[in-house]
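Title: Prediction job returns without error message
Component: structure pipeline
Severity: low
Priority: P3
Assignee: unassigned

Description:
Job completed but the reporter wants confirmation the result is attached to the right record. Sequence as submitted:
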Amino acid sequence: NFADAYQIDKEGKSAYDINSDNGTIQMVSADLSKRETVCTGIRFPVAMAFNREGDLFCTEQEGATWLPNGNPLDELLHIPLDGSGPNNKPSTKRHFGFPPRHPRHNPDVIDEPSTFDYAPQHQSTCGMVFNEPVNGGPVFGPESWAGDAIVCGESRGKLWRTKLVRTPSGYVATSQLFACLQMLTVDACVAPDGDLIVACHSGPPDWGTGPTGIGKLFRIQMEQPEAARPVATWAEGPQEIRIAFDHPLDVTELRQLTERIRIEHGEYVRAGDRFENLMPPYAAVQAQLIKPRFALPVTGTSVTSDMRTLIINTAPMRSNDYFAVTVPMQSELDVDFALHGVEARWTPAKGNPTPAWSGWLPHADLTVAKAMLAASAGHEALWTALEQPGTLTLRSKLNLHNILRPAIQPGASIDYEWPAEEAIVTFGSDHGIVLQASRATDASQPVTEIAVVCDQSNVEWQLATFRTSADVTDPVDVVVAMRTGDGTIPRLTASVQTNEDSSLRPLQLHRFLLPWVDVNTKSDSTTFAEFPKIAELEGGSWARGRKVFRSEAASCYKCHSVGSGGARIGPDLVNLVHRDFASVMRDVANPSFGINPDYIGHVIALNDGRVLTGVLQTDGDQLLLGDEKGTVTKLSKSDIESMAASKT
């Protein structure tokens, strides 16, 4: 019974029977002669489908309205068909949390975590289809979307594209919202011509106008295959957001971008919130709507020289919120991200001329990271470098709270206490690894080092393991270092098990927090008021800096101004005080890395045969071309034979 899971009678006894067919997925033989239970604890599955690997997935709707910890979020579940249960016992079945484990009513189960949660609460995941060709036709959308799960959120009119990456311990998923509809979005399928056909129902959530109501079919087409589409969004640092695109951006759409970008953050903030017109009738949804949303100031923008990555400089981000970014281009683009991920740094071995690389990864498992960043041009240098001699160092904070404990709906409580839970985290690699783990449970206490056990008995696959309490909310700081360089990208995996269940499970993306995130910082109006002191600038001389800026040797003043009244060939540098030290130093050392979209270089061929390069500005009807020496050439449009944006 999806509304009364434990079926408790007047005497307080539960009639729930885990051996019944209710709340299970059944596998029926081809000749219909027999059937068997595949799993239990399923509440309201609407869609089931096999991916290209032959693995079964299903959508599962939240149940916390009926039980405080009974599937608080809508889920995508991976349903293993190998017969393995908790503690790898074939005699037990995996239980997916409805009803959840209870010391009296349901004591002998382990609540299986989901593969992906669709949040905030009350999305009502319904239809799902894997994005595969039909009758030899194309997939829906760009080729990089092939094989992804397209999931429908019925109650709020959502369509997500969920990428699933298989690991030895299970699937890791990431998801991107790509459409918001104004009707209840029930199901979708890929047509033979590659279009997406979406079935919608009329009326309000949850159930609309019922079985006699009018529905509609919509066709979603990709009209511009070469248009730049976002493939990943992340925080590169406390004051820098990056959005990677699968194709080069259109230069003409990037003018005055700093003034036009909008960023909001908060606990329930997501991309596309402004398009929502369907509100499920639940108190939890009303609580989400009145939760504060905060604006994050934008201090600058630039694009990489290949025009594939947009860089947004912001006020400091510290709170563990979700951030939604609206980028006004030809059609406004909405993306979101949280401060999740891994800080990566690769340094070449002595004598190796390959440049060092540093940046963000979504996960410590390199197979997962590479699959999720397949269309990110800025990460291609890392995959090449990992084949060369050097050292890769990963840093992150691991959130290990409640590994096998279902979340409790906000404002609710349960009438029992869980036994102590320990998380056992294992990193494995074919290149040998060094692992450090520590935890600070109190700001007034010193950091506690966590013992790491290394297993090098198998030289081809070495393990490093630590165990710690999963009952506390404080994350574990981890540093993983490994040698690279045998012509292949090294394998690195990350998995978790607990003291109650030895089965290995993957660490999902939300378990990784960036190392600079303060998990205790709350979102409020003062969160971004204080800028941290920069050690490298302590004791610096403003007067000496001004002297260098205006010197002939540096010649900065010929192109840039600091405030009004200076040169206009390059960007005004007055906003650099809002940037972080590392990104400013990067732009000084490598000016071509990030190019301000208002100062894109151009190559101009003139009618008289001359070819000029520089930054193009307008002054009334005239064009002003400023070159690297600070010289400004005045041009008329009639003087120009051809003009193209430069890549440097």
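Comment from assignee: result matches the submitted record. The mean pLDDT is 91.
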